[in-house]
Task: structure prediction
Amino acid sequence: MGCGGSVTKAGEYAEGGQLTAEGLSGEPYNQAHLFEGASEEETKAIVAQLNEINAQMPLGGLASYLRRARNLLSDAKNDVNPLSGFVPHVPVGERLVGDKGVGTEYYAEIERLGMSQLSKCAFCLVAGGLGERLGFPGIKIGITAELTTGATFFEKYARYILAFQAHARQATGDINLLLPLAIMTSGDTHVPTVQFLAQNKNFGLSSEQIVLMEQAKVPALMDPEARLGKKDGLVETKPHGHGDVHSLLHKHGLPKKWQAEGRKWLVIFQDTNPLAFRPMCAFIGVSAANDFVMNSVCVPRIPTENIGSICKLEGSDGSHKTINVEYNMLEALLRETPLGGDRPDETGFSPYPGNINILIFGIPTLAQRLEETGGVMPEFVNPKWTGPDRSAFKSSTRLECMMQDFPLLCGPQDKVGFVLMDRYMCFTCVKNNLKDAPHRKPHDCALTCEADLYASNIKLLRHCGAVVEIEEPETTTFLGISVKMGPRLVLQPSFSMCLEKLKARVFGKIKISRKSSLIVEGDIFIHDLDLDGALDVSGSGEIKGQVVKNAGQPLENIPEDEFSSQPPSLQIRGYRCSIGEVEVLAW
Result:
């Protein structure tokens, strides 16, 4: 879907290859409006800005961007459907549910296979988002994920990577082995991310294993002719989408470097879904077992739910492509299938799995495809029209790209698939603030994310092989948002990075009351535990027949007169962890 190179016109460039106001005013740019009424100083500033943008843009620079924009805007105006002519089929993948789900021997085998691959893994965090929409004045990875430990989302991710690394070092005998982490930032988040990591000493990660990749913005488009918008005397710019992660990885030479180091798998993940890491070994195991070039982690999708689906699309020429289809295009695509649209099958879910944008790539093929294409993803445009004639926008738009569209760079020999798990194992998020969350279904806020973390750990503990008796959850409500909340269990990755590790550490009878909280960190073994309160265990040791009873540390409402004085991570919740009582066991 790439475009040809731009044609250079006389006057387009000044000496030294720089764009000029004269060149930008004519073909192929047609941006004369930017300089109408502008002072000499303003003109110079706009030209300097566009030269910087032009230098950063791949695929022929600014001229090519504008040409692609005009083509895509024309298609949008004429309601051209990019999926027209394709026939959808249920894709090939691995469904880790039912007799292959958590707690089965099949799941154990696939998880062990993934554990054997950890030394060959790299990770990439797409972290371009700010928390402003959530009421948090900072980067989203700096938001507290749960109050029992106070860990931020990034700390959660770092702990898992360190646990995977520790396992890989033990498995390989290489005490210096590092698992690399690339972090894609934006212009808004880059400096705060650098500061956040420095202030927290990278949360135990080595500076040597972290690479920051800053994403540039692209010019905003003000009309269907792709004239650029202005804001505060300069060209308005907007994010290009998380698909830029591929071009940034290529620009930094990381896939080729990792391939040369013998690495096989790259895991790309996003900023507020910590549940994805506990079953990560199983996901990697599925990629290894199936030799997937790209593996999308999925959940059972409720029809009409606002998440994309993985579909196998058959073209009129008989070609096939397994790829994500966005939710707003599914109804039309599926209308001619036996289900007659975006409808449930006999399971009550859509047969097309719901994509949650945790992606696992085979590094050798990834490196090859990015080398061939520069990592530039096919783009789309989504203008909001003022009326049915589609002659003007309500507000400026821009070209966008998505990281899950990587299969469009692949050939027929590249195997693309998915792995599906129950939602409680792998998906939660924080995308709604306290004002909006009560009116959204699901709430998808800080409280629901925190409750999801505890609930997932409870369910995993019930699969560990011990006799587990955990009091059922009850409804907990803060500021009009209600969730089911049981005991607050935090099983740190250093204690159990996956279910197979957990099975080797917990034995006997485990009894935990609803009001309890439990933190376990380090090389700990538990033989019988009766917990009714708060317990914090860390170090290297063994619990045998421990009985704990205290007042605990329940969550509590923040009084209205204290609300404004609370830290931001509490203000976006409306509740806090009480001081209460906690028993600490540390070796």
